[in-house]
Structures are given as structure tokens and as C-alpha cells.
Amino acid sequence: MKKIKDYLPWIVYFVFFLGILVVNPGAHYIHLVARIIIFSLYAVAFNLLYGTTGLVSFGHALFYGVGAYITGMLVKATSPELFPLFIILGALGAAFLSVFIGLLTLRLTGVYFTMLTLAFAQLVWGLTFKLYNFTGGDDGIQAIAKPEILSGGVTKYYLFSFIVVTICMFILWRIRRSPFGTVLNSIRQNPQRITFLGLNVYKNQLKAFVISAFFAGVAGGLYAGLDGSIHPDMLHWPTSGNAILMATIGGMGTFFGPVVGAGILTGLEEIVGKYTEYWSFCIGVVVLIVVLLFPNGVLGIKKTGGSKNNEEKETEVVCNSGD
User: Fold this and answer.
1) Helices (DSSP H) in 78-140: which residue ranges?
2) HEC letters along 145-184
3) CA–CA gap between residue 97 and residue 139 (Å, rounded)
4) Is residue 164 within 8 Å of residue 222, measured between CB atoms?
């Protein structure tokens, strides 16, 4: 029974994201769910820092956007047939950039870390406007072609995105349940005790930062192919804020919480945007209600009242072993 309970979120995940192909509500809604699944990967990757390690990066859109720009520019410069390879190269580019930024920002804590990550993201966002000949400026880059096997309707690209995202989600899931994931949880709860145990907090935070940036870059590359265009807003601070909202709404203390948050936020944008131009105000009200009524997020409701999940219990064992 315990194993079935552990894998129940995965079962729901497969039923929902594959069920949409069986129901087949039309190209528009399949495209909407494709956005949700790509944003899910972005939010889950961000939550490795936010919910697991306790680092609030407000510049994560930088890695999402860099992954998208590298993928899009390589497709425009060469051939769309190598699109999957370019997604990997985009993610590696985001990870490489995160090493440099992480080495500088992780020396600070709290709001100083948050503001410095925001500063780096805004710096690169500004460069995308200035380097017009290279990035297309505020026009971005349009008409990013997909390989022939993924062309001809959104369903093929949705299935491709689902496979890539599922592989990435499984890797992140295994990381979170590994000894390394337990160390990250312990860092969030009490970094001093981790230091007393002889573990290097800074190095483990840097590893989490790079891993998170890599998978955010994969999400960016996938989105470049979905819409066939990229633009500077992908690196702007609201995109970073969306990752925080998705994780907070869904439940930052759970692995699948950001997936639920991505679905709620993207669905609200779609539904409310049809009826009023003040959709952002309405979304803000809904988010406020959710946060006030469910401080642990939608999937974190069961934790309210003091119950603890297995990860928290394991973390306490690690922390208490230093007493």
C-alpha cells in the first residue's frame, strides 16, 4: 500500500497528460496543456532550489530564457533536424552560466542572494535588447522551425515534450529522494548542523543551483519549439515570479506541487483572459486567497496540523545525528 501511495502522483500525472490525447479536445487545448507541462518542468526545476534547498532565486528566468535563446538561435543558424541536440546544448549553456552566477551569489544569503540573482537576470534581459543583430532585440526571434518528424500539428510536439519532460521529472524526482536530496533538505532546515556534520553547504548549494538551471534550460528550449518564437520577456522578472507562484500555489514542500501550480496559473490566465483585460488583477486575487487559505499550497494541505512527510522525517534524522 505504501508503494502505491508513493507512486499515486505519478499515476495521476500519466493519466492527466496522456488522457488529453485520448480525449483530444482540439489543437488549442493540446497546445495549452503543452504549455502546462513545459512550465511544470520549469517550476519543478526551480523548486529544487526553493522548496528543497531553501534558496529563493528571483532570477531563474535567466536560465529558462538562455536555454530558449541558445536552442532557437542554433536552429536558425543551422538545421531544425538537430532540434533535440540543440535543446541539450541550450540546457548546458544555462548550466554553464549558472556556475559563474552561483559562485558569486551563493556567498550571500536571504534577501541579498535573491536580489543578486534578480540583478544578473535583469542584466542579461537588458543585453537581449541591446544586442539587436544577435538576439533580435525586442522583436525576438521568430519562425523557429521544428524537425520534419515533429511538424504537422501540435500533437506530435506535445508527445515529444511529454517524453522529454517526463524523463527530466523522473531524474529530478530521484535526485530529491537521494542522499543528496536529503542533504539539500537539511540545508534548508539547518545549514549550521550540516556544517557540523562535515558537509560543505556552499558546494551542495552550488550543485543544486546548476542542476536546477540545467532543467530550467531544457524547459526553455522546449518552449522555443512549441511557439516557434522567443522574446526577451522569457528572461524578465515576471517569468521568475511565475516560478515562485507555481511552486507556492501547488505546494513548495511537495515534488508535484509545482506541477499543480503550473496548471492552476496557466489555466487561470487562459480562462480569465477571455473575459476581462484585467486578468492579472483577478489572478492576483485568486493567488492571494489560495495562499491565505492554504499556506502550504494545494498539495500541502495534508501537512497542515503538524503531520510530517517522509522527506521531513529523514531530514530530521540527518540533522539530529549531529547532536
Assistant:
1) 83-105, 110-130, 132-135
2) CCCHHHCCCHHHHHHHHHHHHHHHHHHHHHHHHCHHHHHH
3) 24
4) yes
CA 241 to each of CA 46, 58, 73, 315: distance values in angstroms, whole numbers, following the listed order: 11, 7, 25, 28
- Computed from CA positions of residues 294, 296, 298, 303, in that sequence, does the dihedral angle turn out positive or negative? negative
As beta bridge partners, residue 141 has 230
Angle between helices 201-227 and 83-105 (to 10 degrees): 150
In angstroms and rounded to an integer, the radius of gyration of the C-alpha atoms of the chain is: 19
- CA dist 166 and 61 (Å) reads 21
294 band by pLDDT with thresholds 50, 70 and 90: confident
| 303 or 319, which is more confident | 303
CA–CA dist 279, 16 (Å, integer): 26
Q: 306 falls in which pLDDT band (50, 70, 90)? A: very low
Largest pairwise CA distance in the chain = 61
Residue whose grid cell is 536552429:
75
Given CA atoms 72, 78, 81, 86 in this order, what sign does their dihedral have? negative
Place of cell 489543437: 27
Cα distances (angstroms) measured from residue 245 to each of 228, 266, 306 = 26, 11, 23
- Half-sphere exposure at residue 44, Cβ-oriented, CA atoms within 13 angstroms: 28
pLDDT in tens, 166-224: 999 999 999 999 999 999 999 998 888 888 888 899 999 999 999 999 999 999 999 99
